[in-house]
């Protein structure tokens, strides 16, 4: 992350309590209550291992509850298991990754629960985009570079809504693009003809295509500059308010999560080490690792200090 971006993040943290704090807290408390009383996704004692010459436990006994309309942030350094957890929930893991324990249940608006471990074949394929959608990390790697945006979006409806006519599919694709702030004329474009921010908006539009109840976003603002990041975040929060879906937002960028999340789970070495209200986690972090994450983003106005990483202290010109 550049110094300019770090400064912008630090400024965002400083201003956190000044932007409609009372109203935000009231909405967060309501959604926190809903996460317990009206969950849309419950993850219980969930574990994932990578099998091989040496077994690596990437996710260790994770328990989380996602409420309806809630944005749950999942923070932690690279390699801590955030994406593995997301892929495991959505049954997208490939060998040598294996789910070794626990469960994940989806709770529908109609009141029934679905054990995701029991889905297979066509049931699983139909469920993934319809109930739980995912915005993958790196839009350019997720979009096919030799197929137009229109064809890629229409494939979703051809697979999941085969009763729609060609005209209806194209109309819906255009409506989805406009909903995320992209002109429908871009349907004929190829991914390389779009900016990074536009490609990311296309991915969000595709994830929303079937009106899912849960959106898992795996670092959706990675490699975007800080201005485009803020535009994407505003779109996500606006769409959440308009459409009512819940979000699991995955990133290593804790200050970014502080801006948009209702609750934040901090992950380290495959485990959830702290979970709580976003404002409370910022003002009163309970775990030493959370405090170090917060301290790793320098303040624009604070005193210059030491950077602590992995228990070692790095000072100007010093060695670890």
* Order of adjacent strands in the largest pleated sheet: 6-7-8-3-9-10
Order of helices and strands: HHEEEHEEHEHHHHEHEHEEHHEE
What does the radius of gyration come to? 20 Å
Termini separation: 21 Å
Q: Main sheet?
A: 6 strands, mixed
CATH architecture: 3-Layer(aba) Sandwich
- Which class in CATH terms? Alpha Beta
Total number of distinct structural domains: 1
Oligomer: single chain
Relevant terms:
single chain; 320 residues; alpha/beta; 6-stranded mixed beta sheet; 12 strands; 24% strand; globular
What does this protein look like?
The chain is α/β, with parallel strands linked by helices. Helix content is 40%, strand content 24%. It is built from twelve helices and twelve strands. Mean pLDDT is 85; it is low at 16-21 and 308-320.
Structure in a nutshell:
With 320 residues, the protein is of the alpha/beta class. The chain has a single domain, classed as Rossmann fold (3-Layer(aba) Sandwich).
